[in-house]
Design brief:
It contains 8 helices and 14 strands. By secondary structure, the protein is α/β, with parallel strands linked by helices. The protein has 2 domains: about 160 residues, Rossmann fold, CATH 3.40.50.2020; about 140 residues, Rossmann fold (3-Layer(aba) Sandwich). About 40% of the residues are buried.
Length: about 325
């Protein structure tokens, strides 16, 4: 048994997921006030005793990104000052993950800055899912448990009964991620090479692999503006794919993404609930797979000082 009582707290970014995690563990969410003062500043107060407790704070860093970052930071600081024994930041979606390196002079490495402030605010450990760049783990000077949704999502796709399929990585940076997914399904791999002439705009350059006469499953870590998925689906259809499925861990759907995706030649969209769907989300054939059980099991193993890596097998 881990030292100290296990307690789960949550900010406001993804309360339904946090509540589902707590239910899986047979717990209720910790009592805390997390709202906003009239002047727009974030207000946080922990409303129960956490002295000596093993505390997990669930907060996805989705839109409004900076508000949710501040909620997380102030909760971490409040818990540290309240003498929690250990504080784990459970961040199903990590913001700024695509800014993990400089692409030109005089640019920040924003993912590193965020890692620094989370640690400084009081996190003793980070639990996260499908970082856009796995190297971000190295930005933290604290233990990082980096979960992957590939096993969970592959299990759902096996239920679809897709025969003679091929898994497609929509860019060269996601090859390792897509390769893990395709091995779990026993399918071949195709790779699309793309470039970004401007931020948040994708342009396909070439493709490696054969999709003619096959069902193609495009697998990525996130769907943001939707440009990458739409371009990939178009190219796959042109190359002879008989059906296209789109699958990602984080369904951000920012800006005009939903309008764009509705016109894409995709049979089904599959994402997880690491990020809540936009209000009024109406995307035909969209399915959401919950990661609550996976995160709850990880939290239990961390609390009990058991291995988390076994969840990847």
């Amino acid at each position: 048994m881990g030292d100290g009582a296990l307690k789960i707290f949550a900010g406001n970014s993804n309360r339904p997921l946090a509540e589902a995690i707590a239910r899986c563990l047979g717990l209720s969410l910790g009592v805390a006030t997390v709202d906003t003062f009239r002047n727009g500043e974030v207000r946080v107060k922990i409303e129960e005793n956490v002295r000596g407790a093993d505390v997990f704070v669930v907060q996805s860093l989705c839109a409004p990104v900076h508000h949710h970052i501040w909620e997380l930071l102030l909760m971490l600081d409040a818990l540290k000052r309240a003498s929690a024994r250990r504080i784990t930041a459970v961040v199903p979606y990590y913001a700024y993950a695509r800014q993990e390196r400089k692409t030109a002079g005089r640019e920040p490495i924003s993912a590193r800055v965020l890692a620094d402030v989370i640690t400084t605010a009081g996190a003793d450990r980070l639990l996260t899912m499908d970082l856009h760049a796995p190297a971000i783990e190295g930005f933290f000077g604290i233990p990082v448990d980096h979960l992957r949704a590939a096993k969970l999502l592959a299990g759902r796709f096996r239920e679809f009964g897709i025969h003679d399929g091929v898994v497609v990585s929509p860019d060269t940076g996601g090859v390792a991620r897509a390769n893990d997914f395709r091995q779990r399904l026993g399918m071949p791999l195709a790779i699309i090479a793309k470039q970004r002439p401007r931020p948040d705009q994708a342009e396909v350059v070439e493709m490696v692999g054969d999709v003619r006469g096959r069902a193609a499953i495009v697998f990525d870590d996130m769907i943001s503006t939707g440009g990458t998925m739409v371009e990939a689906a178009r190219v796959l259809r042109e190359r002879g794919a008989i059906a296209v499925y789109a699958c990602a861990t984080h369904g951000l759907f920012v800006g005009e993404a939903l309008q764009l995706l509705r016109r894409a030649p995709v049979e089904r969209w599959v994402v997880t609930d690491t990020v809540p769907l936009p209000r009024g989300c109406a995307l035909p054939n969209l399915e959401v797979v919950s990661v609550a059980d996976l995160l709850a099991e990880s939290i239990y193993r961390i609390h009990e000082n058991l291995s988390v890596s076994g969840l990847f097998d």
